[in-house]
Q: What sequence folds into this?
C-alpha cells in the first residue's frame, strides 16, 4: 500500500512538472478522489508529507508546513540518533506524541458534523 | 469570455492509450508539450486512477478525480465506457464544478464530432479539427 502511494506521488510529480512552467513553483498539492482528499507537501530536501482526509477539508498547506517546520524539524531532524539516510521508519515517540496532538487539534479532525 | 484559463485536454481510450490531445492556451503562457510528453502523460493516467482507487481507505472509491498543483488543477472524468477525459486549467480560479460541466460538454461534443464520424473506429486516435474547434468554443463558454 505504501509503495503504491509512493509510486503514485512520483508519477504525479512528473505530471505536474510537465504541466507547469519551468521551474515548477509548488508541485503537487492536493489530490481529490470520489471520497477522500490526499494533501501533499514536498520540501526542498525531498521529504514528502502526505495527509489523507475527507473531501470537506480543502486546504491543508499551512498545516503540513507547520508539521514540517515545527514538529519534524524539532523532533526528528534535531534528533542526533536519527540518520536521514537510513531507510528505517521514524521511531521517536515524542515526535509521534506531538504530531498526534497537533493533528487531533486540527478543526478538520474528529467526527463529521 | 470564460474566467478559467484552460491549458490542456487529453483523452484516453479504454485500454489507456492516448487518442486525443489538445493545447488550449497559447504556447507563450503555458509550456508547449511535445507529442512524446502527451503520450507519456496519457499512458500514466489509467494506472494513476487505478492506484488511487486502491489506495483510498474508502472502498468503492472512483479513484483520482482532481489534482491540484501549484500552477493549476487537473480534472479527470471517466466515462461509463472506460474512456478518460482530462482537462487541465491554470491558476487558482478554476472551479471543480465548472470544470466538471466543461468535461461533460466536451464528452457530448466528442460523441457528436468524433464517434459519429463514419471513418473513426472505437479506440482509434482521433484527429478531427472540427472537434478541436468545438472544444475551444466550450472552454470559452465555461
A:
Amino acid at each position: 500500500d505504501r509503495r503504491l502511494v509512493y509510486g503514485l506521488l512520483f508519477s504525479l510529480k512528473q505530471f505536474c512538472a510537465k504541466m507547469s512552467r519551468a521551474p515548477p513553483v509548488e508541485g503537487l498539492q492536493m489530490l481529490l478522489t470520489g471520497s477522500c482528499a490526499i494533501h501533499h507537501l514536498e520540501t526542498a530536501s525531498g521529504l514528502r508529507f502526505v495527509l489523507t482526509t475527507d473531501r470537506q477539508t480543502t486546504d491543508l498547506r499551512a498545516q503540513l508546513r507547520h508539521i514540517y517546520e515545527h514538529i519534524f524539524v524539532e523532533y526528528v531532524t534535531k534528533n542526533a540518533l536519527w540518520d536521514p539516510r537510513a531507510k528505517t521508519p521514524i521511531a521517536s515517540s515524542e515526535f509521534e506524541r506531538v504530531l498526534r496532538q497537533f493533528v487531533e487539534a486540527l478543526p478538520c479532525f474528529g467526527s463529521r458534523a | 469570455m470564460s474566467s478559467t484559463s484552460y491549458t490542456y485536454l487529453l483523452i484516453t481510450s479504454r485500454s489507456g492509450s492516448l487518442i486525443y490531445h489538445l493545447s488550449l492556451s497559447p504556447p507563450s503562457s503555458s509550456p508547449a508539450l511535445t507529442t512524446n510528453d502527451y503520450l507519456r502523460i496519457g499512458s500514466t493516467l489509467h494506472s494513476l486512477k487505478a492506484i488511487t482507487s486502491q489506495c483510498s481507505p474508502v472502498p468503492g472509491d472512483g479513484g483520482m478525480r482532481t489534482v491540484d498543483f501549484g500552477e493549476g488543477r487537473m480534472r479527470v472524468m471517466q466515462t461509463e465506457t472506460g474512456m478518460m477525459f482530462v482537462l487541465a486549467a491554470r491558476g487558482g480560479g478554476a472551479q471543480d464544478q465548472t470544470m466538471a460541466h466543461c468535461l461533460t460538454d466536451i464528452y457530448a461534443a466528442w460523441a457528436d464530432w468524433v464517434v459519429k464520424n463514419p471513418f473513426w473506429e472505437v479506440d482509434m486516435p482521433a484527429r478531427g479539427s472540427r472537434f478541436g474547434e468545438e472544444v475551444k468554443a466550450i472552454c470559452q463558454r465555461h
Remarks:
- The longest strand of chain A covers residues 36-42.
- The first helix of chain A runs from residue 2 to 19.
